Amino acid sequence: MKKYFREIGILMLGMFLVTGAWAKTPQYHYVSITTDKGACLLKLYNETPKHRDNFVKLVKEGYYEDLMFHRVIQNFMVQGGDPNSRYAAQKQSLGDGGPDYKIPAEIQEGLMHKKGTIGAARDDNPAKQSSASQFYLVQGRVFSSASLDSLEEFRLKGKKLTAQQRELYSTIGGAPHLDGNYTVFGELLQGVETIDKIAVVETDERDRPLEDVRMSMKLLTRREALNLEREMEGLSPKTGFLTKFFDLFHSRYY
Asked: Is residue 204 in some structural domain?
C-alpha cells in the first residue's frame, strides 16, 4: 500500500513538473484590430498597467465591437472608442461617450507618440486622467530638424525635446506635441499602414468621416500570444498534441 501511494505521489509530482514546463506566460498582451480599411496587431505596454488592464477588460467584453473611428485628422491621428458611435445617425456629434470612470494618468517620458502608437483620449481635467474607452492611433508626420526647432519655440513654448525625441520624430515620425500630456499605452506591431488608409477618408466639419469606418477587436489568447512571441524570436509556433493537452490546464487568457 505504501508503495502504491508512493508511485501515485511520484506520478503526480511528475505531472506537476511537466505541467509547470508548459505554464509559461506571454510577455505582453496583444489585441488584433480589424477595420473597414485593414487590420492591425497591437501590443500593450506593461509600463502602463492601469491602461493595459482596462483595455484588456473592455476588449474581452466586446466593448469595441462595431464602434466607429469618429474623429479623423490626417497627419495627426484617428480616434475611436465612443460607445455612442455604434448606432449613431449621420452627422450626429460624437466624442462624449464612455464608461463613468477615468483611468489615472500613466504618462512616462520614455513612451512617446511615435507613428503607430495608441494613446488614451481625455478631456481637460488637470490630473490628465484618461477616458476609460476612447483612444487614438497616431499617424503624425516626419519632422525636419528646422520643424522641430519651430515646434519647440512656438508649440512647446521653449521646452526642448530630448535627443531621443528628435531622433524618433525625424525618422519614424509622430506627434511630439502630445508627449507629456497624454498616456501612451501600446504600439502597433503590424498594420501601421491601416492608419494611413483611415486618415485620408473625407470628413465633415467635426472631423467625423462622411463614410463610417468601424472596428472590431479580439484579445489574443495565451497560446496565440506565446506563439506570436516565438515567431518574433524566429522560432516555430507550438501546436502539437502535448501543447494542446497541457493548455487544457491553463486559463484561455492570462
From this structure: yes
